[in-house]
Amino acid sequence: MSHRIARTTLTALALACVATLGHAQQGKLKVGLMLPFSGTYAALGVAIENGFRLRLEEQGGKFAGREIEFVKVDDESDPAKATDNVNKLIKRDNVDVIIGTVHSGVAMAMAKAAKESGTVLIVPNAGADAVTGPMCAQNIFRSSFSNWQPAYAMGEVSGKQGKKKAMTITWKYAAGDESVAGFKEGFEKAGGKVDKQLTVPFPNVEFQALLTEIAAAKPDVVYAFFAGGGAVKFVKDYAAAGLNKTIPLVGPGFLTDGTLEAQGESAQGMQTTLHYADGLNTPRDTAFRTAYAKSFKLQPDVYAVQGYDAAQILGIGLAAVKGDISKKAEFAAAVEKAKIDSPRGTFTMNKAHNPVQDVYLRKVEGNENKLVNIAVKNLADPARGCKL
Amino acid sequence: MDFGTFLVQCLNSVQYGLLLFLVASGLTLIFGIMGVINLAHGSFYMLGAYMAFALSPLFGDQFIVMLAVGVVLAAVFGYLLEWAFFSYLYQRDHLQQVLMTYGLILVFEELRSILVGNDVHGVKAPPWLEGSFALGNLMSYPWYRLFASAACVVLAVGLYYVVNRTRLGMMIRAGASNRDMVRGLGIDIRRLYRIVFAAGVALAALAGMIAAPMSSVYPGMGASVLIICFVVVVIGGIGSITGALVASLLVGFVDTFGKVFFAELSGMGVYVLMAIVLIWRPEGLMGRKV
């Protein structure tokens, strides 16, 4: 009897030794953070990194027992430098995973490089439809959204509100075109008709001529896609022209996210759609917001959530392969099966690895984008052009 | 397009053109008279806008006083800048001027980032200019935009008077046509240049301050205005204030109606205009023949 106990204990000990040896051989997991740490999007890059680190901290600083070593690269939101930067991470630093980035042009170059090398890439913001469309791959994931998603939801909501005639206005560039196309699809499916699509050359912010066109055409609703300074100016000009009193202005969340202080009175009451909102008031979101505020002395935003969820995706995949990231198929299979418990609400992945998520309708109240209701439940990007 | 809409679009064109003139006039002064290619001119416009952002809470509804204080500050800044940097550029070739003024852009952008951050900020219009008036039953037009146009007209007239009717203006015009002769006549050309440069900076900053409540202030706002101002200066003829005014209005009309009728190609409109003018009159509309 005692022999048997001794033998079992020994075996167990030996097994434990082998197990720890295995881990020691795996060593640290190298994570390349390729994000904007300077320039216009610097604050977004920081929020994403903070979100990622918060999740890591909650997991005791390890994913699937592996410690994380970060290699940081400032991508400067410059597509011209993107290929160089990502290749340095892959070839020189030999990272196991890349997290990035905000700018769609840069993210496209990253997706191309990741597709070639097979390195796991998790995109924590950039919404270019193509990343989880024609560029999709087993090793490419996105924790944020596709441009199509909030746009389609807004189209459907506007159509269901009984609006018949819509006009769209955007900068003439890829993200704007994708967003407007998404709105048109949702709106026309719900019975409306997009009359006219106005465009302004990027990054021109002289809108007065087109506002006059809108006033003359008198549509039932105007859908606009602008971000940053352009979003602030457009919303203010729209209100100054008195159009907000007669023709509601709607858009994806970026039209009123992080810009409300500057937009002030002119944005009040505006409705936008996004996969996150102020005042979700779920225990999950409240816990996340409290923890984030405590760790970083900052209020979290949608970018922080996306960074946090990028870390969750990595954690889920790694747990399934016990830290061995070379098992790409099992890694992907685990993420595809997972229900990701995000502060935004639980989401799953579509076949192209873009979140299937609730898109919220929000309304501007003071400096917050307050939740109104769920615009579309479990909205999946159609992943056009993806051959997975 | 019905007649009412057409009139409103004309108003839009004039209003945009006048604002462009304000920035471009400073550029054409510096470019034409001192022969310096000043890429940093857009930064002075940005400086003005951020000054409006910083000063407007202090002055409240004393908007005109704020503009005056801002202009003085900008002129002093321009005077010092000329003394510290630009005075070394006159004898150098254009490449060196471009390099240094490009360097200044980077410095100003970085300083802006350190001092104010990268957020977009709004500037409130003064209370007595808030609100708007109805233009027929079409849309309403903010009072502030009308005020901005009026301010630009006043400045254009003032500038015309100074350049064509005063002793200083005479020296400026003379300095533009023959630097050495002016120096030979015993006029302190260095001091003249310093004044012209300070005035150029002040004009750009004033344009920035006036534009701030309409356009909000944001990183990189100088770069977008710089290119279009060079177009205006080239179309109008380098160094000609009247040319800059005519060109600004032309660009205003082409840009506005281009957006309406040729949306897909509207980015090209003003450049096509520039190409046509350059083929027809290589020295610009009001430029001197070389």
UniProtKB/TrEMBL annotation, chain A:
Keywords assigned by UniProt, alphabetized: Signal
Domain Leucine-binding protein: 29-365
Membrane-traversing stretches: none
InterPro entries documented for this protein: BCAA_transport, Leu-bd, Peripla_BP_I
Claim: Signal is one of the keywords in the record: yes
SUPFAM superfamilies per the UniProt record, alphabetical: Periplasmic binding protein-like I (SSF53822)
One Pfam family here: Peripla_BP_6
Keyword Signal listed: yes
Family stated for the protein in its record: Belongs to the leucine-binding protein family.
Protein name: ABC transporter substrate-binding protein
Annotated source species: Variovorax ginsengisoli
